[in-house]
Design goal:
alpha/beta, nine-stranded mixed β-sheet, 46% helix, globular
């Protein structure tokens, strides 16, 4: 019996000699695949789109030419504006209301008087044209942008392409004060010229001089794709991105879509839509033991009391958002027809989004940070292009969807990221929360002053932070 068992045990040992290495190889292979898949960068599918009028042409290639563009005006345009300003009707404000009920109509009359009698639109058009403007057709619509190159580049210095994207109710004009600081830093005593940029500022489709989409569904992902195509058309393979408000969301999508093309991402507003148990615990513990959940003292100062700063104040400032995310065309009709209504609607945001305490001022504190010429030039860009309705539609296209189900909600950002946290921003996002999305934060700066329109309000502070970020990325 023992002799009979010997061949059988020999067979088992032979099988084990084969099966064990195979099993080890299989498990090892699965482990390697799992480890590699963990580190594989997820991206948003780039896709394609058509936003022109009617059906996409079946034949023929899209005109990819880049055409010089110039902003123009006419006597007829100015006369029509003056006529409408003169016929405006006003409702007297409540006594002591300041800006608590919206734009104070007593101060509005002063703004309109200046607009009618002293504001020189022709002069502002000349100032707008000081930088080179262009248009090019992408996915069926004309995209407007300015492209500013440095006039002098120190020997041996590389020029870094920088795409800067505005938000609402802003425009490409928001960047006019920061552009010379970035393209000619040495002349403005910002550095020794070690970081020099050429700056591209497009208008989001439906804003200003970029054609509005003719089809439904144009969101930040579509915008990101178009801006990648724009940079590719300009001959850039790698570039830096900067933005706030919608610009922040657009360039974040660009980094999620083609990370290999994005050298670095700089934000002055952070969209973090992910919530859940971890965030709830962080909020609850942050006020008492902030170090335990990764919050700093400055985070605590800017974030708490949480209900007041993140719910009450946000609700007070976001009524416009609900209108624009549901039925933008209804409210837009009146704004597109009345320059006074348009100015009140837009300029009210430049008051309380610049500094929350401006709510208590009769003039909304507007002229303490900006000149009326600057503010009205931005309003005029919306007025002369009739773009307020199409700009408002951007909210419906983006916010009407469940934020947890969008393509970008499931994709992190792995490219080097810099964040400039301004103290008067609508909502503060601590670094610990931003890391949930942005996996490679190189710089995170608590800015000493400034609000939502950083490039417009504090161009030098923002320029310095962009340069510090890019300098660090270039040294990686």
């Amino acid at each position: 019996q023992t002799i009979l068992c010997l061949p059988r045990s020999f067979e088992y040992s032979q099988k084990n000699a084969v099966l064990v290495p195979v099993a080890v190889l299989g498990v090892g292979g699965m482990l390697v695949y799992w480890l590699r898949s963990r580190h594989k960068i997820k991206t948003i599918e780039m896709g394609d789109g058509w936003w022109g009028s009617g059906e996409r042409p079946l034949k023929g290639k899209e005109d990819e030419s880049i055409r010089p563009f110039k902003i123009e005006t006419s006597d007829k345009e100015i006369e029509d504006l003056h006529c409408r300003l003169e016929q405006a009707r006003y409702t007297p404000p409540l006594e002591g209301a300041t800006f608590h009920y919206g734009f104070n109509s007593s101060y509005l009359q002063k703004v309109v008087a200046y607009w009618r009698n002293q504001f020189d639109w022709r002069k502002q058009v000349e100032a707008l044209n000081k930088y080179p403007h262009f248009q090019t057709t992408i996915e069926g619509i004309d995209i407007h942008f300015i492209h500013v190159k440095p006039s002098y580049v120190p020997h041996g210095r590389a020029v870094q392409p920088l795409l800067m994207v505005h938000g609402w109710p802003s425009s490409f004009y928001e960047f006019y004060k920061i552009i010379p600081l970035l393209t000619e830093p040495a002349r403005h005593n910002l550095n020794e010229g070690d970081v020099v940029f050429e700056v591209i500022c497009p208008s989001i489709p439906g804003y200003g001089f970029s054609e509005a989409p003719h089809q439904k569904g144009f969101d930040t992902i579509a915008t990101a794709r178009i801006f990648h195509k724009l940079m590719n058309r300009l001959g850039f393979k790698e570039y830096y991105l900067q933005g706030g408000d919608w610009g922040s969301r657009i360039i974040t999508n660009m980094a999620q879509m083609l990370p290999q093309s994005v050298k670095g991402l700089h934000l002055n507003f952070v969209f973090v839509s992910r919530q859940g148990l971890r965030r709830m615990i962080s909020v609850m513990l942050g006020a008492y033991v902030p170090w335990l959940v990764g919050l700093t003292r400055e985070d605590v100062r800017r974030t708490y009391p949480f209900i007041q700063k993140n719910i009450y104040e946000l609700l007070r400032e976001s009524g416009y958002l609900h209108i624009q995310a549901t039925k933008p065309d209804t409210a837009g009709c009146g704004l597109n027809d009345s320059p006074v209504g348009l100015a009140a609607y837009i300029l009210e945001k430049f008051s309380t989004w610049t500094d929350k305490s401006f709510l208590h001022k009769d003039d909304g504190g507007l002229e303490s940070k900006y000149s009326l010429d600057e503010l009205l030039t931005n309003v005029m860009i919306y007025w002369v292009t009739s773009s307020i309705v199409s700009s408002m539609r951007f909210y419906k296209e983006n916010i009407s969807k469940d934020p947890g189900l969008t393509a970008d909600a499931r994709v992190g950002v792995d490219v080097p990221t810099g964040i400039a946290a301004f103290p008067q921003e609508l909502v503060h996002t601590p670094r610990a929360w931003a890391k949930e999305i942005f996996k490679n934060i190189i710089t995170y700066s608590y800015m000493p002053r400034g609000g939502h329109f950083a490039a417009f309000e504090e161009p030098k502070l923002l320029a310095q932070d962009i340069m510090r970020f890019v300098r660090k990325v270039e040294q990686l």
